[in-house]
Each structure stands twice: as C-alpha cells, then as structure tokens.
Amino acid sequence: MKTILLTAFMLWTFQSIKAQNTEKMENQIEIQKITDVIENYYFKGIYEGDELLLGKAFQPGTLLFGDIKGEPYFKTVDLYLNGIKNRQSPKDSGKPFKGEILHISVVNSIAVAELNVKMYDFNYRDFLSFHKINGQWLIVNKMLTDTSR
Predict the structure, then answer these.
(1) d(Cα 100, Cα 123) in Å, to the nearest integer?
(2) DSSP string, 2-65
(3) Which of 45, 80, 128, 143 is the most buried if burial means most Cβ atoms within 10 Å?
(4) How many CA atoms lie less than 13 Å away from 37 in the CB half-sphere?
(5) How far from the centroid of its chain's Cα atoms is residue 71's Cα?
C-alpha cells in the first residue's frame, strides 16, 4: 500500500512540475513577443520619430496618462502620435536616448511592462498595459511620469 501511495505521489509531483515548466516556457515566449513590440516598435518609433512605426504598437483608442515635470498629462494615442510626428526626434536631436525594459508580467492575455526611457532632458518611467488581440500584443494603456527631478 505504501508503495502504491508513494508511486502515486511521485507521479502527481512529476506532473505538477511538468505543468509548471510548460507554463513558464509559454510565459517566456509571450514575454519575448512583448519585448519585440517594445524594442522594435515602441522604442524605435520614439527614437526615430516614426509615428507610423510607433502606432503599430498601440490599439486604436489607447489613452495616455501621467505627469511631466509635475504637470498632469493626458492624451489620446492619436494626439500622442501626432506630437511624435511634429517634433524633432531624439535621433535627429543628437541627444542621448536609452530605452530599458525593467520588468514584464504576463497573465493569460494581459500584460504589464515597466520601462525606463531617457531622452532629451527627461527620464521617464512608463507603465504599459498590453492585451493580446487576435494573436498580437498591443498597448492598450500608457502611464508615464518624469523621474528627472
């Protein structure tokens, strides 16, 4: 009887470990997909001032909230992208630009990414909410604050 119970326990434990490892692998794949969106569309679009490239990272209707130098900040994604289009890009300004992913957390079809973005005379902390829509990870909300002070 002890042998049967021990065998059953070991099989159950093995299945649990296997399920956890499979879940972690799937999560890593999704984290990599989100990382690709951040690096190849979000950071690159901001740096180059390419509003079309940057726009591919956002779900239409996305809202942006936060503060810059202590002042409240609110824009729709359309206004934000228009601002990107009509300003001098960090690339063209010759000033340093650095985008860094601090953390990405994924649960099913939603995710949150915490980023640090240094550009011009600002040091932004961004929190991006993602949703996997039709197999594609898109930003559905952006919150930012200027931590330069």
Answers:
(1) 11
(2) HHHHHHHHHHHHHHHHHHHHHHHHHHHHHHHHHHHHIIIIIIHHHHHT-HHHHHTTEEEEEEEE
(3) 128
(4) 26
(5) 24
75, 88 contact by CB (below 8 A): no
**Where do we find the tokens 């994604």?**
77
Spatial separation of the C-alpha atoms in residues 54 and 57, rounded to whole Å: 6
Asked whether 24 and 58 are in contact (CB, 8 A), the reply is no
**Dihedral angle sign, alpha carbons of residues 13, 18, 21, 23:** negative
Burial 127-139 (b: 16+ CB within 10 A, else e): bbbbebeeeebbb
